[in-house]
Amino acid sequence: MENFEKDKLKRAKKQVEELKGFYIHLAVYVAVNTFILINIYLRSDNFWEWGHFVTVFAWGIGLAFHASKVFDFNPIFGKKWEERQIQKYIEEDKKEMDKYK
After folding, report:
1. Which are the contacts of 55, defined by CB distance < 8 A and separation ≥ 6?
2. CB of 16 within 8 A of CB of 31?
3. What's the rounded Cα separation, in Å, for the pair 29 and 35?
4. Chain segment 29-85, per-residue pLDDT in tens
5. Torsions phi, psi of 77, nearest 5?
6. What pLDDT score does 1 carry?
7. Closest CA to 33 of 61, 66, 55
8. What is the end-to-end Cα distance of the chain in Å, rounded?
9. I need a surface site. Which of 1, 17, 18, 82 has the fewest CB within 10 A?
10. How far apart (Å, rounded) are the C-alpha atoms in residues 74 and 42?
């Protein structure tokens, strides 16, 4: 039982570290991109060009993947999909076992 409690604590600490890492990533993303965009705004005649926002969008995609990992969001292979697959394999095993009864 003691090992179970240690495992729970270890998993909780890992989750907190992942969450902390995401928030640090988010803060750096906001700070760096704000600095970049302010510099572009102050030094450019035409602010609204695609090239000025490449960093924001590309890094934003990476940040979105980081968030989906930390917050367990996966619309394609989410919890419901996992549950359906588990039920499917349980049913297949039952049918296979029924063959030999």
Report:
1. 33, 36
2. no
3. 10
4. 999 999 999 999 999 999 999 999 999 999 999 999 999 999 888 877 777 888 888
5. -115, 55
6. 63
7. 55
8. 38
9. 1
10. 39
What single string gives the DSSP state of each residue in the chain? -HHHHHHHHHHHHHHHHHHHHHHHHHHHHHHHHHHHHHHHHHH-S----GGGGHHHHHHHHHHHHHHHHHTT--SSS-HHHHHHHHHHHHHHHHHHHHHT-
* Phi, psi torsion values for 35, nearest 5 degrees: -60, -45
Contact predicate 66/22, CB 8 Å: yes
Q: Which two tokens stand for residue 59?
A: 């890094």
Residue 60 contacts residue 68 (beta carbons within 8 Å): no
Q: Tell me how far apart the alpha carbons of residues 98 and 69 are, in angstroms, rounded to a whole number.
A: 39
Taking the C-alpha atoms of residue 37 and residue 49, their distance in angstroms, rounded to an integer, is: 11
